[in-house]
């Protein structure tokens, strides 16, 4: 009854609306573009929720147009329309690159994105990104129509549109049971877009971008109490095991291997290994074969942060850029306390990812960036890995002579998307030799291109180069006598950000026709969402020259677990770690920024609320609910620690109490 009453009050005159073609264009084009964007990105086109969300929201915005007259009204609608086009185009491009949606807090680091703009242009700008500009052509036509310039203020239509939009939004929330909290939690951008549409997502993102400052001023008291309760309950004590103190007093060299994925290890083409050096190290040292990076939009910098702190990236923006001023308990700081000299090295400009500021905050005594090297060979964004390593050895040697112990973090660069500098990577043959029957019925050898001239193929060639650079580095370290008391830690920083369809030719190549197998072919191997996500894992190896600890660890593990695992080996302890010493765990959970999570039993897709079982054992609903809550809690707690500067605040309180 009530609904009928409300509806009867909403009177929108047909004439009013038909006289307002711009109003219609804005509303309808926003709806269509939102639909197209979701179809081309997350693909949930049959879901009605975002449709109602977008309709209610855009109608609400458009209703204010009726309070304006003539030219002003046209300008108002044109602005909404152009903004909606910009939002969809920008998100379309961004999604191809990051598999996520744009966050305005990234605008402050646009100068960095301009450094990778070539990478973006070469690899991900696609014609589909232009579909969204169609309304601008209609807009031009309508603005030329004189009738459109004569509009009177129309309060009645304003009230009607307002009521209708409010009615739609309220019933959308009530009927669909939309979880409004997810807007403030923002722990999965894909989730928000799939439930609210792109415009509500972006408006919410803009409001939330002020959070770093506002939250710290007002909303943190409660968050800090939650973090405190979390640590109390967690009982984050150090437990001894067979690896305790095995590397106490040893030097540490970490190799941050740009974009190296785990599937490359032990992969061969024409009898030649893609990563012979990593293969050898993985067999000689402790090899974690189910290891995942846990990056957000901060990619490389997020890995640097998580490795150093055992905390996760923030929900919105990047820690290196927006939260560099917070206090963290870090790997360099803890080693420095033990008399180590900690330093980082990288062949790109120091300001990239705000490293020049953040590395100092993380506790590195020195950051050797591009300016410290002779730029004698360039690959991609900066100095080539081979030259970088070659020039780094004497610098490391000098530090080793002047300090009791050292920790070096070497951030490699050459294996960065878009993997285009083939002539610099060296020879690596990705063609395939096959035998085919000729017209006389005889077998004949033929070479087919397979992964030559292909994005994944180029990535493989680039990775072969990166692996060879690591091999040369280790040889150089050995020659300089730097391996005797040193532990090497090698990890892929994140996946190569290849698109799912770029694996098609790799898995489903038909050499006879030099094309991709048909989906109905019995040999066709499905590379679906889960295969893609699980394939994003990266290698992690802990290696020493004498190799007394050979082992393959198969338990799932995330970047957040590296610090506690190393802490047990090197004898340091971070009570704020959110990860675990992997050797003290029977079962682990790896939580990803988009809310997905992984255990040895299953991979959970948070966006679709579905999962892939990884074992035959039946998975109970309780198990899923428990881990879902755990994943959510970890992301929230980590975010609160950073945003609310928890570590500094607790330290201040304990000092005041002394
Ligand atoms: C930039 C390099 C690459 O210096 O570390 O950063 P990424 O794009 O991987 O975050
Ligand atoms: Mn990287």
Kindly report the name of the CATH homologous superfamily of the largest domain: Alkaline Phosphatase, subunit A
Number of individual domains: 2
Beta-strand residue percentage: 5-15%
Q: By helix and strand content, what is the structural category?
A: alpha/beta
List the helices and strands and how they pair.
Elements: H1 2-9, H2 14-18, H3 21-40, H4 49-63, H5 70-98, H6 110-115, H7 117-124, H8 134-144, H9 155-176, H10 181-185, H11 189-196, H12 198-208, H13 211-217, H14 220-234, E1 251-257, E2 268-269, E3 272-273, H15 276-284, E4 286-288, E5 291-292, H16 299-309, H17 319-322, H18 331-337, E6 340-346, H19 355-362, E7 366-368, E8 378-379, E9 382-383, H20 385-402, E10 405-411, H21 422-425, E11 432-437, E12 443-448, H22 455-479, E13 486-492, H23 504-507, E14 509-510, E15 515-516, H24 529-534, E16 540-544, E17 551-553, E18 557-558, H25 562-570, E19 590-591, E20 597-598, E21 602-605, E22 610-613, H26 621-643, H27 646-657
Parallel strand pairs: 1-10, 1-13, 4-17, 5-18, 6-7, 6-10
Antiparallel strand pairs: 2-3, 4-16, 8-9, 11-12, 13-16, 14-15, 19-20, 20-21, 21-22
Helix pairs in contact: 3-4, 3-5, 3-8, 4-9, 4-11, 5-8, 11-12, 14-26, 20-22
